[in-house]
């Protein structure tokens, strides 16, 4: 993140924040609130940049966190429209992952 700030390269910022959230959730003492903040930041950046792929990844990560917290309806409401934007590429890992999660949220 420091390198991106210094260089001005922002193309990966959404993914960097998403990964921070994933890593925060895998710590020996995870902090779900911090992970959620990172996922929300990733979503906001991806939406601002119009990067649908990164938005899908961030939405999937946040929806997964919410599912683990019992917030299944919120998770589905977040992920379903993002997944619905895609018209091709359904054999990619990201779309397969999102589809699997959506099926679990029914």
Describe what this molecule looks like in 3D.
The protein is mainly α and 106 residues long. Helix content is 75%, strand content 0%. It is globular. About 5% of the residues have low confidence.
Short description:
The protein contains six helices and no strands. The protein has 106 residues and is an all-alpha fold.
Note the main attributes of this structure:
106 residues, globular, 6 helices, 0% strand
What is the overall pLDDT average?
A: 92
Low-confidence stretches: 5-9
Helix and strand succession?
A: HHHHHH
- Helical/strand content category: mainly alpha
Residue fraction in strands: under 5%
Main sheet: strands, sense, barrel: none
Nearest-angstrom radius of gyration? 14 Å
Distance between the termini: 36 Å
What share of the residues lie within helices? Answer: over 70%
Query: How many beta-strand runs?
Result: 0
So what's the overall shape? Answer: globular
- Please give the count of helices: 6
């Amino acid at each position: 993140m420091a390198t991106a700030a210094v260089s001005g390269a922002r193309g990966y910022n959404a993914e960097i924040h998403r990964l921070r959230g994933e890593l925060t959730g895998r710590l020996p003492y995870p902090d779900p609130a911090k992970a959620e903040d990172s996922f929300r930041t990733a979503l906001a950046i991806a939406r601002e940049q119009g990067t649908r792929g990164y938005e899908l990844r961030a939405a999937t990560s946040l929806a997964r966190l919410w599912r683990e917290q019992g917030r299944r309806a919120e998770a589905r409401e977040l992920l379903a429209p993002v997944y619905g934007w895609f018209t091709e590429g359904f054999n990619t890992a990201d779309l397969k992952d999102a589809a699997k999660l959506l099926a679990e949220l029914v």
